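WARN  no MSA supplied for this record, continuing single-sequence
INFO  ligand: cobalt (II) ion
INFO  echoing inputs
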Amino acid sequence: MGIIIKTPEQIEGIRRSSRLAAETLKYLEPFVVPGAKTADLDRKAEEFVRDHGAIPATKGYKGYKHASCISPNDVVCHGVPNQYELQWGDIVNIDITTILDGFYGDTCKMYSVGEISPYAQKLVDVTRECLRLGMQECKPDARLGNVGWAIAEHAHKHGYTVVYEFCGHGVGLKFHEDPEVAHIAEKGSGVLLKPGMTFTIEPMINAGKARTKVDRKDGWTARTIDGKLSAQFEHTILITETGFEALTDVYGDF
Ligand code: MF3
Ligand code: CO
Ligand code: CO
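INFO  complex generated
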């Protein structure tokens, strides 16, 4: 397959779609409160995406039926929206991928439901730092493996583990393109990054063991094997001539 180097026109399309995916996460913020059902948050996300002329990429993807993935507490990723009511003290991830004019943007972030424990807060903070450190490795002629190296170094330093059963991915013209972006890797390994590449970095960091298991009931929801907390942040990244641009960063963190 190979990694697609995007044209300036394609980059502009991916930038617009990425921005919309991120705006959707921002829009949801006031609704992520104790008592909210994850299925209702999914419906709000879908309305927002469609009202802005886009399509939720997950709907119909490999049989997945929802506009978002909503992953509370021990859910690592691909949490299926359902009748679960968010509880005071939960941490929850919402992941949105949009298709706008044929271009894909993919992002996720953590929300706190009411007040969360210092234990949960630290996992969320370290996971956000892991994404930031991974992104800071992104520049022309750097090795992709340095992203996973930087992420894993930071996670391990805090006593956390890195999920290796799910990866980041090229994104833009399709949902999942080459390359696969490992969140734990050896320094100096992997392909050389080049301007015009677009891919996600989306580390999933666990408080306990790294292993995951998929719920047999819905076939999607991936949980930590030991029931301990997991956190994740995701940005769609563009490699530029001088470094990177975080296309889904509407908060201006980068
Ligand atoms: N958005 C997820 C990602 O970051 C993929 C979700 S696929 C689904 O790659 F089918 F589970 F929705
Ligand atoms: Co992704
Ligand atoms: Co995603």
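Residues 58, 61-62, 64, 69, 78, 95, 97, 106, 200, 202, 220, 234 surround MF3 (ligand 1) (CB under 6 Å).
INFO  checksum written, moving to next record
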